[in-house]
Design goal:
Length: about 230
């Protein structure tokens, strides 16, 4: 493994924030029997996922599962749906996951097939839904998840979860400080931080308990993780 990491450094492939694709040649970086390395090898076999997306999905799912267990996983603006798969692998008590996006690619189905072949317990438990986020029914017992839904899409995800009283975990990105609520705080706070602070304030005003965390900055500078659960 030490040789693989040194080789990775020479090739520049240990950068966790890289947008370069993970392909078969990077399998050498995922040699252990750990769950993460097993997922990494599956991603390399698929051969299309940017490196940063693997680490973003893993770090987000890992932190969310430390707080929220069980429930149907609803990944909105899912992209390739990797986070939904990881959520089930980390906690088998969730019966199913739906991965929702208005433009699901063939690559998403390819990655899902590879992951399901590695972990047969995922079979028939991951459902891709190729529809607008507004059309999906959210249930109170669901766990709504979104990793880097751009700009106001994060607010839409929050709106959908709050309307149902569901648990929520979002990793926002691409903040639009001109259109989003900064609460008049941008004179003191960085604009994107002000937007996220106001999201916390809004959730608390809606009767939610909020927990704020971060995933490693080495993975992404847009690393603020917001988790919330309705006070019962």
């Amino acid at each position: 493994m030490g040789w693989a990491l040194e080789r990775g450094k020479m090739l520049g492939i240990t950068n966790r924030s890289s947008k370069n694709r993970l392909t078969e040649k990077e399998r050498v970086l995922f040699q252990t029997d750990s769950l993460f390395d097993s997922i990494g090898r599956a991603v390399c076999e698929a051969g299309f996922l940017p490196r940063k997306e693997l680490f973003e999905a893993w770090e987000t799912a890992r932190k969310v599962r430390r707080v929220f267990r069980g429930g149907r996983i609803v990944e909105l603006a899912c992209g390739h749906g990797l986070a939904a798969h990881i959520m089930l692998l980390l906690d088998n008590s969730s019966q199913e996951a739906i991965a929702v996006d208005p433009a699901i690619s063939d690559n998403a189905y390819r990655l899902s097939a590879i992951l399901t072949e590695r972990w047969p317990r995922l079979k028939n438990r991951i459902h891709f839904v190729n529809k607008p986020l507004q059309t999906i029914e959210i249930l109170p017992e669901d766990l709504v998840l979104s990793v880097h839904a751009c700009g106001e899409l994060t607010d839409l995800v929050i709106d959908r979860a709050v309307a149902a009283g569901a648990r929520l975990a979002v990793l926002p990105c691409c903040h639009d400080v001109k259109r989003s609520d900064t609460g008049g705080l941008s004179g003191w706070l960085d604009g994107p931080l002000a937007v996220d602070v106001m999201r916390v304030v809004r959730l608390r005003n809606m009767g939610y308990r909020v927990l704020t965390k971060e995933i490693p900055k080495e993975v992404t500078p847009k690393n603020r993780l917001l988790m919330a659960e309705k006070d019962r």
